[in-house]
Write a structure and sequence with these properties.
This protein has eleven helices and 13 strands. It has helices at residues 12-36, 40-54, 105-112, 129-133, 168-185, 194-206, 209-216, 222-245, 254-273, 290-308, 351-363, and strands at residues 58-66, 72-81, 97-98, 117-120, 139-147, 150-159, 251-253, 278-283, 287-289, 317-325, 330-338, 367-369, 376-382.
Length: 395
């Protein structure tokens, strides 16, 4: 039997209302974990909040510790269970589990490659079933926890009473939660991970889209904004995965990254705006630290969304270029957008999206120029003063 994993996209409509229920507790957990410094209490609260909303029976966190001989051992650290479900937090069989020797070599391979493990236990390889069926698990989702490019744990979601079909949107939301939980697992080591920090701060920034909508008096439906938040979370998880998988030195070839990111941009625009865009990305060959690549990608992502997610009947097109100016220590991002046959004059940016762009750039001490008479934008970031995305003002 083959054990292939694939997301069920045909069932998206059936679970869309559940995902709208799930996104709020995930975003709230991001906020509280960030504000609390990722305390053990807030991790436990996040598991309870998200577990109940996801309608699962058990949520847990394991850390993964390498021994001197490079054997990976897993230890359960946190757990939440639904009513009438047996807790496993005191189960000695879930401490110091030698993953590969215990039959979970497939899990190690997938998790190390930043891939989730999910599906019906009845379809899993025989060597994986004994410990899982002993816990009455019917279906499962396990997402990795990384720090400094290394697998350091995983978060699991068990169904014990129903057969669960996981969607890609489910998985992206819950991977974003695992990124937010990561600092709590390693706080004793006082470990810091710039990629995790940047990703969590971005999620907390886009969390304010709903409150920004109310302040701006926008008539945009809440369901539409929630859909765009989901797309943004999928995008940041995609970038985080790409950069975390890299085993090279920390500096990343920007042109190589944008070969990958261009496809993700097209996918996001199609999903988020319902438009097939003619997109041309041009980047000079230069290298940047991974956390700055993440920031640059998210800013370009928001710029495109701000211009593209406007009403219009024609097929839009955009030219996106990036350049490094070493003489003055800046990175320049330039976007020129055309709304097809309707011309550039009518292609004014979306106000909510523009607020996000300005806040992201402002937090990096950069500048944004958006001429009133032209559908274009220019962002300049000072390389010597790169910090993190954070709220600079209340909405």
């Amino acid at each position: 039997m083959q054990h292939n994993q694939s997301f069920n996209s045909t069932s998206f409509q059936a679970v869309q209302s559940q995902e709208e229920d799930l996104i709020t507790p995930v975003l709230e957990s991001h906020r509280r974990l960030l504000e609390s410094g990722s305390s053990d209490y807030e991790v436990q609260e996040a598991l309870s909040r998200v577990g109940g909303a996801a309608d699962v029976d058990r949520v847990y966190v394991f850390d993964v510790v390498p021994a001197a001989d490079e054997t990976l051992y897993a230890n359960q650290r946190f757990e939440w269970v639904a009513e009438a479900v047996t807790p496993e937090i005191d189960n000695p069989e879930l401490q110091r589990v030698p993953l590969e020797a215990a039959g979970y070599a497939r899990w190690v391979r997938l998790l190390k490659n930043y891939e989730p493990v999910f599906g019906l236990i009845e379809e899993f390889p025989e060597e994986e079933k004994p410990l899982l069926t002993a816990q009455s698990i019917v279906s499962i989702l396990v997402v990795p926890v990384f720090s400094d490019g290394e697998l350091r744990g995983f978060v699991g979601f068990d169904h014990c009473r129903a057969r669960k079909v996981w969607t890609e949107s489910d998985v992206s939301l819950l991977i974003s939660l695992s990124i937010a939980i990561a600092p709590s697992i390693f706080q004793a080591e006082q470990a810091t991970d710039a990629l995790n920090t940047q990703a969590v701060n971005y999620v907390n920034l886009i969390r304010n889209l709903l409150s920004l909508r109310d302040v701006a008096g926008s008539q945009q439906p809440v369901s539409d904004i929630l859909g765009k938040i989901r797309s943004r979370i999928r995008a940041v998880v995609s970038i985080h995965r790409f950069l975390t998988r890299r085993k090279e030195p920390s500096d990343i070839d920007v042109s190589e990254f944008f070969d990958f990111w261009e496809q993700e941009l097209r996918r996001t625009l199609d999903c988020c705006c319902g438009k097939r865009m003619r997109l041309q990305v041009m980047s000079e060959p230069f290298r940047l630290p991974a956390n700055l690549v993440l920031q640059t990608a998210l800013i370009t992502h928001e710029l495109l969304l701000a211009f593209a997610c406007r009403e219009g009947s024609s097929v839009p097109s955009a030219d996106l270029s990036l350049g490094l100016h070493e003489e003055n220590g800046t990175l320049a991002i330039h976007l020129r957008y055309s709304n097809g046959n309707e011309g550039t004059a009518r292609s004014t940016p979306d106000p909510l999206g523009l607020v996000l762009v300005r806040r992201m750039v402002q937090s990096l001490s950069g500048d944004v120029e958006i001429p009133a008479a032209d559908a274009s934008a220019r962002v300049v970031l000072p390389l010597q003063d790169i910090r993190r995305f954070e709220e600079t003002a209340d909405p």
